Amino acid sequence: GVDNQSIRLEKRGAAALITLDRPKQLNALNDALSREVLRAAQGFDADPEVGAIVLAGSQKAFAAGADIKEMLSKSFADLFTDNYFAAWDQLATIRKPLIAAVNGFALGGGCELAMMCDFIIAGQGAQFGQPEIKLGILPGIGGSQRLTKLVGRSLAMDLILTGRLISAEEARSAGLVARVVPDDQVLAVALEAAATIAGYSAPAVMMAKEAVNRAEETALTEGLLHERRLFQASFATQGQKEGMSAFLEKRKPAFSGR
Ligand code: CO8
């Protein structure tokens, strides 16, 4: 076993759970935590028993941003030379679905971390924002890019320039959040979604994630071509033969994970 200081890990069937666990700092993201989350996600990504991963915080905070105490005295040279927070960029290489289960504050780096996940399930009381401007800085792990893609330029500018927070419902209607549920059901709903996904054919799930992500990166014709090749490739999997046979034979499919 790996010794984690800032996170807790659990497996619930085929759903894996990473819980941020720095309650006194409202799960502020520091260097150690970011490395632990990446290592845990990579471990679950390589674990054939795991089909999807949930990332959660506490009731009070998913994460209140990057750790301001840790950042205060850093210089440009420190951030640049150490490639501070580079671990977060590598979360994008995780091939299995990553679901953010958000209660309470998702601010700054916390909001950015939630946006790095594939989709967000939020509690009614959750609050989202990019308040970096109040600290004399700006979003640094993707907020200006991912938030703009998700909610559009106008609301992204509003949030990033004023630092104001929005409710879960506003975040849902703007396209940042996939589902809003009662606060005490966030984790259960996220784990249920993870279990549902984990029940499908693993290569189809990874191909679907890859195809959707391609939409962010490429022009339409290239994206459509990529999707078509993946679709064709899915016919080389056991899952396609099994999924279609099971449907026609009116039984539950038994996916091999291949
Ligand atoms: N960093 C460090 N400590 C924090 C943070 C944080 N981001 N947020 C809260 N804490 C600590 C508080 O200092 C406090 O500690 P203590 O008990 O020792 O005084 C404890 O958590 C509890 O916080 P509060 O007493 O403030 O709790 P409240 O309920 O009154 O307020 C808030 C909750 C509104 C969430 C408030 O804590 C807050 O505004 N936090 C800061 C939010 C923020 O500004 N986040 C953005 C941080 S900057 C960032 O994320 C940049 C990311 C890009 C990095 C790029 C690197 C390459």
Automatic annotation (TrEMBL):
Keywords: Fatty acid metabolism, Lipid metabolism, Lyase. GO terms for biological process: fatty acid beta-oxidation. The keyword Kinase does not apply. It catalyses: a (3S)-3-hydroxyacyl-CoA = a (2E)-enoyl-CoA + H2O; a 4-saturated-(3S)-3-hydroxyacyl-CoA = a (3E)-enoyl-CoA + H2O. Pfam families: ECH_1. Its EC number is 4.2.1.17. SUPFAM superfamilies: ClpP/crotonase. It comes from the Bacteria. One of its GO terms (molecular function) is enoyl-CoA hydratase activity. CDD domains: crotonase-like. Belongs to the enoyl-CoA hydratase/isomerase family. Could possibly oxidize fatty acids using specific components. This is enoyl-CoA hydratase. It comes from Bradyrhizobium centrolobii. The lineage of its organism: Bacteria, Pseudomonadati, Pseudomonadota, Alphaproteobacteria, Hyphomicrobiales.
